[in-house]
Design brief:
seven-stranded mixed sheet; six-stranded mixed sheet; 38% helix; 23% strand; binds nicotinamide-adenine-dinucleotide
Length: 496
């Protein structure tokens, strides 16, 4: 059985813990490897390395850091197919999907290459007579990130390239469900010339997370995962005096106005609702059909969704793979049963799907509910599977109220051909990431990613300028050089 260990001080480190957690291939239901559940000794070994590495790394000039990150980018590009395969094996998503996610993560690495420019401070001359003032941003120290299963390469890349570019050392605690690609990403950074210990990987479950949260040598925590855990991370980190950004769950609404291009809206909804088996924090899980567009919208989605090829990633025709675990499959199926009991109209039922040769895989077929209402559990909760709920709204005002009243505030989108509606929506929706005629408005690396309400706890989103601010402390210097304190020979003013 393949064993996945920690990555400490530039190499794979055999831990002293004897406890290992199993890692499944969701397509077959078989255990493919085991990952170490680190103990206190393993943690101490790792944190000592991170502290030591920070002392030297923070002195390396931003330009030199940028060159190493540039080299790292090249190495990831060369190995992209292999990294994507590691994602697909342990997560189950299609290979194209996995490659796309690594590419999106790589964009943050590319952004981090610009660190000499991004760290340029502000300067004011003569804030008082012969007094100058300037601001600089300095690294925090040892920083840490805790990441979810659904994007095992991309989500860590929202954090560590920026933290490291800013001069910090970084500890990654990846999801225990799909930890392999973190080790690969760390190995490539060492190959690119990153000094040992600047990027360490700590494997394990809640116990590993708690060691990070309670250690006052760790200056900041970046978290992405479910809302209850995000809240716990936020509260515990804040109580322990750490800087924290904790991104949580989502229930993203896509509004289809009667004047929308219906074909474009349906195409967008297909990828956004069922891509990656709905296990994306930016997945569309609610389609709000406004006015008389509803019947046609439901009919068109249903016709397309029933033709989706559900298959393991090894089948090149696959458009949708399995969900992450047996427990998660059961949870999603229970939600479908709940939806039926609550009175929603089940148009497509993804329960009991059988894939020949993969009967033990964790597959759930595309599922579509119509006539979902806001008091239903399937509307309120994040299901995180290929389940789309259609809610009918009589007009735009009712649709906007649905979006704004929901507890989550990650992403939303509107399909319309009217500029005024679009402008009103982008201004008045209480959501962090908003799309107009695009289904998944994921910001590029040079902008910042993050939601509102129950989707983000903390003050900073990830990457872009927000990322630079999160991973650095601001220092403002005020400097005065009166003649009376000058010790050297007197300065003679030029005559012209
Ligand atoms: P999760 O919250 O179960 O786990 C995330 C991380 O937290 C993992 O590393 C895990 O080991 C750790 N963890 C789990 N339980 C813990 C506990 N009780 N105490 C301390 N640490 C704990 O999330 P998941 O199931 O891996 O991922 C899916 C969730 O992530 C979904 O809710 C999804 O919406 C969310 N997500 C959000 C975003 C975003 O940008 N907002 C992006 C991706 C995923």
């Amino acid at each position: 059985m393949k064993k996945i260990e920690n990555y400490i001080h530039g190499k794979i480190s055999l831990g002293s813990s004897s406890e290992y957690l199993s890692v499944d291939d969701p397509s077959t239901g078989e255990i493919v490897s085991e990952v170490i559940n680190s103990n206190k000794d393993d943690y101490n070994n790792l944190i000592n390395s991170s502290i030591k590495a920070y002392e030297e790394w923070s002195k390396v000039t931003p330009l030199k850091r940028s060159r190493i990150i540039s080299k790292y980018k090249e190495l990831i590009e060369k190995d992209l197919e292999n990294i994507a395969k590691l994602v697909s094996i342990e997560h189950g998503k299609t290979l194209d999907d996995a490659k796309g996610s690594v590419t999106r993560g790589l964009e943050v690495v590319e952004f981090a290459c610009g660190i000499p420019h991004l760290l340029k401070g502000e300067f004011s001359q003569n804030v008082g007579t012969e007094i100058d003032s300037w601001s600089i941003r300095q690294p925090l120290g040892v920083t840490a990130g805790i990441t979810p299963f659904n994007f095992p390469a991309m989500v860590p890349m929202w954090m560590y390239p920026i933290s490291i570019a800013c001069g910090n050392s970084f500890i990654l605690k990846p999801s225990e469900r799909d930890p392999s690609c973190s080790i690969k990403l760390a190995e490539l950074f060492t190959e690119a010339g990153l000094p040992d210990g600047v990027f360490n990987v700590l494997n394990g479950d809640k116990a590993s997370v708690d060691m990070l949260l309670s250690d006052n040598r760790v200056q900041s925590i970046s978290f992405v995962g479910s809302t209850p855990v995000a809240k716990y991370i936020y509260e515990t980190s804040a109580k322990n005096g750490k800087r924290v950004q904790a991104l949580g769950g989502a229930k993203n609404h896509l509004i289809v106005m009667p004047d929308a291009d219906l074909d474009q809206a349906v195409d967008g909804i297909m990828g956004a609702a069922y891509g990656s088996a709905g296990e994306r924090c930016m997945a569309v899980s609610v389609a709000v059909a406004v006015g008389d567009v509803a019947d046609q919208l439901v009919d068109n989605i249903s016709k397309k969704a029933e033709t989706l090829v559900v298959a393991p990633w090894t089948d090149s025709s696959s458009q949708m793979g399995p969900v992450i675990s047996k427990e998660h499959k059961v949870k999603i199926e229970n939600y479908i049963t709940t939806g039926v009991k609550e009175g929603a109209k089940l148009i497509l039922d993804g329960r009991n799907i059988k894939i020949q040769g993969y009967e033990n895989g964790y597959f759930v077929g595309p599922t579509l509910f119509d006539n979902v209402t806001k008091d239903m559990q399937i509307y309120k909760d994040e299901i995180f599977g290929p389940v789309l709920s259609v809610v009918r709204a009589k007009d735009y005002d009712e649709a906007l109220k649905l979006v704004n009243d929901h507890a989550f505030g990650n992403g939303t989108s509107i399909y319309t051909s009217d500029g005024e509606t679009s402008r009103h929506f982008t201004t008045h929706s209480k959501i962090g990431m908003v799309g107009v005629n695009v289904p998944i408005p994921v910001p590029m690396a040079f902008h910042s990613f993050g939601g509102w309400k129950q989707s983000l706890f903390g003050d900073h989103s990830m990457h872009g300028t927000e990322g630079i601010r999160f991973f650095t402390k601001l220092k403002t210097i005020t400097s005065r050089w009166p003649k009376s304190i000058q010790k050297g020979p007197e300065f003679k003013m030029p005559t012209n």
